[in-house]
Amino acid sequence: MHLTSLFAAVHAQILWPGPAPEAAEALHVVVADLMSDVLTRDLERPLLLTSLATEQAVRTAHVVGAAGVLVANGKTPPEEMVALARKLDVPLARTALATFDAAVALGRALGR
After folding, report:
1. Are 72 and 102 in contact (CB under 8 A)?
2. How far apart are CA 20 and CA 40, in angstroms?
3. Which residue spans within the chain are E strands per DSSP?
4. pLDDT class for 56, splitting at 50, 70, 90?
5. What are 34-43's pLDDT values in tens digits?
């Protein structure tokens, strides 16, 4: 599913759309605050949903080939996180929804 559609499903504010937002696709959603948990998954093009508003989330998303990072719980990522997302071309957005509610909305949008 297009990343922009997933972001719309959770009323996300896009902080960095990435190099080609209209073409970016996410096939799965991974929900984690421990980035080591994300590294143990073997999924193609996941969207990382987390309440961790640090550069570590962007670095982890880049390593696993994630479609993007969505920060939940209304947290505002610091400028350093946004700058790293730009540098690594990782789409970054935030949502006011709680992590659980965002996960449910994303699952429904993916038809699961």
Report:
1. yes
2. 27
3. 13-16, 28-31, 46-50, 68-71, 92-94
4. very high
5. 999 999 988 9
Give Cβ neighbours of residue 2 (< 8 Å, ≥ 6 apart). 22, 23, 24, 25
pTM of the shown model: 0.95
Strand order across the beta sheet in which 28-31 lies: 13-16, 92-94, 68-71, 46-50, 28-31
Are 27 and 112 contacting, i.e. CB atoms less than 8 angstroms apart? no
**DSSP secondary-structure letter at 33?**
S
Percent of the chain with pLDDT over 70: 99
H-assigned helices in 10-95: 35-39, 55-64, 79-88
Q: How far is the C-alpha of 45 from the C-alpha of 65, rounded, in Å?
A: 6
